[in-house]
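Q: I'm teaching a short session on how sequence maps to structure, and I want students to see two examples side by side rather than one. Could you give me a first protein with its sequence written out and its structure tokens following it? Keep the formatting plain so it prints cleanly on a handout.
A: Of course. Example one:
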Amino acid sequence: PSGRLLAKRQVAPTDPPVVDPNPRGNSRGGRGVVIAGDAIVVANYHTLEVCNRELQVTGTFSLGNFAGIHEIMRRGERLFVASTAINAAAEVPLTAVLDTAAVKTKPTAHARFWWPTEDPTVCEQLGVPCTNYPDKQADNRLRHLNLHNRGRVGHLHLNAVDADGGRLYALLNKPGAILRLDQSGSMEVVLRHRLLEGSHNLEFIAPGRAWVVGTRSGLLLECDIVAGEVRPLINLATTPFAREVGRATAKPVWSWSWLRNRDRSSVPGKGDKAADATARPLFWRGLAVDDNWIFIGTSPAAILGFDRRTFAYRGVVRFSGHVREIVHGIALTS
């Protein structure tokens, strides 16, 4: 990778603005990103921002049930949104997002939502109590900025959505599961595995096979939906970049779960110890794949490149040396 930076812009929720009580900055920065022709769609906490190739905002799209958006994924003319704070998956017509941006007005098109915590079958499969969100017509975008939101009983941390043919799937970070979402409205847990706990990103690379970034394990994982199996493909913790970060902590880096419990005061770019107490080096997140490359993001902000065929490490592009700065979404364009 050449690492040439073409443009940059700060991403933050402004309409409405967010006063965030979370020391990790729960509403901070850009999240998922997709390419749509000459447009770039990037998510902030509750809004999809549409930009041109110079990253100038040309319009926005937001709905009342967009809260804590994580990943977004484009498949054809459909855009899938993970509304993580309220455990919801959404499907939005791409034209609605782009047309709204063109005229710079508030959107009137509504997404289709799935609410897995309201489904008795899903809750029974996961062993969690059902949770209802009764006021779905209200503006819920700022109602879930709670320090204890992620840790509450029944929270699934649904953080990625993708389609495999005509079927939709969602990644559940907290229980470590993949959920099938049918157009009829029914839902079912189709895969659950300990390596999926705390994971990010969900991208189908072939029918029935999806890749997931194992944030805790430090692995790129392949999920076989039909066989119900999870297989490691790449050990991210053994890359030169991860070992360099490990040397900065005076300990070898075997996994993020090991490193998160160690003193990180010597990580490059570390600032105030109290302010940075929640920062996590080697927090693996962000995935993009084409015919030749696999790109995976991490912290301190960097994108690692791997050969798609052999899974061999090919290099890293660094954006920051500060552990509090991290890659979230990655999208590829020609």
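Q: Perfect. Now a second example for contrast.
A: Example two:
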Amino acid sequence: FVGSYDKARAESDSDYWGNTIAWEQGRNAEAMEKLNISAGGARDNYGVEVRSTGSYDDWSGETKGGARAVINAETLNINVDGGANSGASSGYGVSASTGLSGLYDSNDRYSRTQAEVTLKTNDLNVNVENTVKAVGLSADGRNSVVRIMGTEEQYVNYEPENSWEPLDITQDKSVNVVITAKVTGPGALNGIAVEAINGGMVSINGSTVNDSIILNGDVVVGTNVQPDEYGHYPSTYESRLEILTDAGDDKLAINGDVNLNKGGYFQVETGEGNDRFEINGNVNLAKGGYFDIETGEGNDSFILNGNINGHGHGSSYMRIDTGA
């Protein structure tokens, strides 16, 4: 499933930002019961891919436009398998990318280029197996967004830069998410369950009842940068992974390492209820990494079966609040 920015269509059938009529209607449409998506057998395999480079506006001097996709299904299964005979293969379950660097540049910070994937589902299963690289959810580049929410949630995007406003609708169906990424080649590293890099954002939203979110593989957030000859690190845009489950007795697990690079922000908020959050791996904090957990009121637990490692010169941030 591939989305791409169509400049001609955006100019004739949308507003200035490239929001088409189909996009506005599709993201709040009634959900289908079940959808299966599969891809494999190639060198580069994608279940759902949205890629945007936008277009340059001569009058304003800004880049505008974007590519967006909405999938609305009660049950959504995405399977990406490079296959044993595909050689050196890579695979992505869901990918949104803009090609924009994560390094801060005052001249292009107002870029309107966007790539967004919205998955409205209450039961999401993403399985990726490839010989070299396997990524479950990927948001790569500034203004790239992968968003997961329940089928009853409805949102309106008033501004183009990731500012979403919820309508007065309560999501009271549980949200169950399983993301599995596995690299099958010899001597391979772990697969990456979720990456939000170079200014990208992944947002996983739960419900007001009991949710379950399981990430089988590593988590990578931020921009991987090296210091200059003087030991100074360049400034970067914020990359973000947020898991917001609201009320209910929620179960969260990450079976892999959490790697936070420069500008990487990892946030978990579970709201009121008896919640359990477990990380079976290490937490690796680079300079400028943020690790923030708040579980709200209730009988909550946070378990780390691993180490907390810091590297790089400068400060990082860690907060764990398991509520009252």
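Q: What should students look for in example two?
A: Point them to this: The helical segments are 7-12, 21-26. Also worth mentioning: The longest helix spans residues 7-12.
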